[in-house]
Amino acid sequence: MKLHWQILIALVFAVFIGSASSSLEAIFGFSLLPSFDFIGSLFLNALKMIIVPLIVSSIIVGISNIERDGSFARMGGKTMLYYVCTSAIAIMIGLVLVMLIQPGVIDGQPAQQFLGLHADTAAVAERVGGSSGSDIVAIFLRLIPSNVIHAAAEGQMLGLIFFSLLFGYFIAHCGENSQHALKGFFQGLFEVMMKITNLVMRFAPLGVFALVAAVIARTGLGVFIPLAKFFFTVVAALLLHLLVVLPLLLKLVAGVSPIKHFQAMAPALLTAFSTSSSAATLPMTMDCIEKRAGVSNQSSSFVLPLGATINMDGTALYECVAALFIAQAYGLELGMVQQFTVVSLALMTSIGVAGIPSASLVAITIILASMGLPIEGIGLILAVDRILDMSRTAVNIFSDSCGAVIIARSEGEETKLV
After folding, report:
1. Could you tell me if 314 and 399 are in contact, meaning their C-beta atoms sit under 8 angstroms apart?
2. I need a labelling partner for 326 at 20 to 30 A (CA). Which of 17, 246, 316, 342 fits?
3. How much is the average pLDDT of 340-359?
């Protein structure tokens, strides 16, 4: 059975087992949740274990090859243009739907009085960590790490990517002997890491089952009822971007089959949904895009690691919808200037705070502050944030993969998707 079908079956079982966990606990006499957490943590740790060596070796090998034909700057420009355009489109989709559906208004009244603030405001503030607009500026500080080893240990991917780009670029400008030795070493490292990635992928169905079952067991399905309007607004916007906008770009710009691309990326999409982490899913994304979609390592090694760090279409869309939902729930009338402010901040924060824990909460807090709304408004959305986090991560990953295909095709590559 193909991997994506195994993962999908595991996902379905996880929903049923997670929903019935309380009944199963009564039968077996012990809680299943610690077992789910243990297996899920093992899978996540295995994915995170291979991120740093895989990214470093992949980028260095890819960039050293790109630089030989002088296409580094051209490919970089195309990649950044794609990231900005798709994120802006995603935000505009979220803006239009939230203004049309008005999830923050119930029976013509602000939803705050109907929903209530069930979350502990102090806990929310602690998770956000007192972040402000300076987090956007901090992206430039994280770009150049003072200690690359420390950056790797701390998972500061932006600085690690920047260093790897420089390293690969200057390998191509070394003498022939040095260039041959360095490229041989990193090529070998990359091949070993891909073999380890294949091993970890074999356990993906088990990891997905444990991660999703744990989420359902904790949250249950009842939390969606009071926030159904907001939940389905976000999901509708994400699906519109995932199933309409990105496939159109694949068909019209890259000239490839969107259906074949979905099939190629299915394991990565399901893993992204279960892990809620673009970085943790990156090894599987690279494996799918190279082996199943046929994109060269030269293109994927540049586009995908960078995309997993700064290209957050789903996150940007969610930030916009969540901030405007909270504004509606508090009865705030939004003019064109305020809407433009929300769109601009959502675009910047989706890039600037992506590497920070609880990144979406940080970004939403910045947007709320710009509109003069209290931080406790985040308490309105926390009940469904986890499931929506899983959904927007899948959109982030798919956008990255589409970018890799589009850039590769623009560079004249043939793929398996035509």
Report:
1. yes
2. 246
3. 69
Please state, in angstroms and rounded to a whole number, the distance separating the CA atoms of residues 347 and 340: 11
Instruction: Give, as one character, the DSSP assignment of residue 155.
Output: T
Please tell me which of 227-241, 300-314, 356-370 the model is most confident about, judged by mean pLDDT.
227-241
Tell me the pLDDT band of 259, cut-offs 50, 70 and 90: very high
DSSP 380: G
The DSSP symbol for 252 reads I
109 beta partners: 106
Contact 211, 43 (CB under 8 A): yes
The tokens of 291 are what? 């082996």
pTM beyond cutoff 0.90: no
- Please say whether the beta carbons of 361 and 127 come within 8 A: yes
pLDDT of residue 24: 72
| Residue indicated by tokens 């039968």 | 27
CA angle 126, 127, 130 (to 5 degrees): 60
pLDDT digits (tens, 9 = 90+) for 364-389: 777 777 666 666 777 677 777 778 88
Q: Is the pLDDT assigned to residue 333 strictly greater than 70?
A: yes
Neighbours of 122 (CB within 10 A): 9
Mind listing the pLDDT tens digit for each residue in 281-298? 888 899 999 999 999 888
Whole-number Cα distances in Å, 79 to 76, 185, 310 = 5, 27, 11
DSSP letter at 106 equals E
The Cβ of residue 175 has, within 10 Å, a number of other Cβ atoms equal to 8
Contact 190, 297 (CB under 8 A): yes
- Coil vs helix vs strand at 109: strand
How far is it, in rounded angstroms, from Cα 235 to Cα 225? 15
Report the run of H or E that residue 128 belongs to, with start and end.
Answer: helix 121-128
**Is the pLDDT score of 320 beyond 80?**
yes
The reported pLDDT for the residue numbered 26 is 66
Q: Which helix (H) or strand (E) holds 4?
A: helix 3-19
- DSSP letter assigned to residue 30: S
Q: Are 98 and 321 a contacting pair, CB within 8 Å?
A: yes
* Over residues 127-148, mean pLDDT: 62
Q: And the tokens for 395? A: 């959109």
Query: Residue 413: what residue type?
Result: E
Residues 172 and 179 sit within 8 Å (Cβ to Cβ) = yes
Say whether 110 sits in a helix, a strand or coil: strand
> What is the rounded distance in angstroms from the CA atom of residue 304 to the CA atom of residue 184?
22
| Domains, in order of start, for the chain | 3-410 (1.10.3860.10)
- Give, in order, the Cα–Cα distances in Å from 182 to each of 55, 177, 187, 189, 221: 16, 9, 8, 11, 53
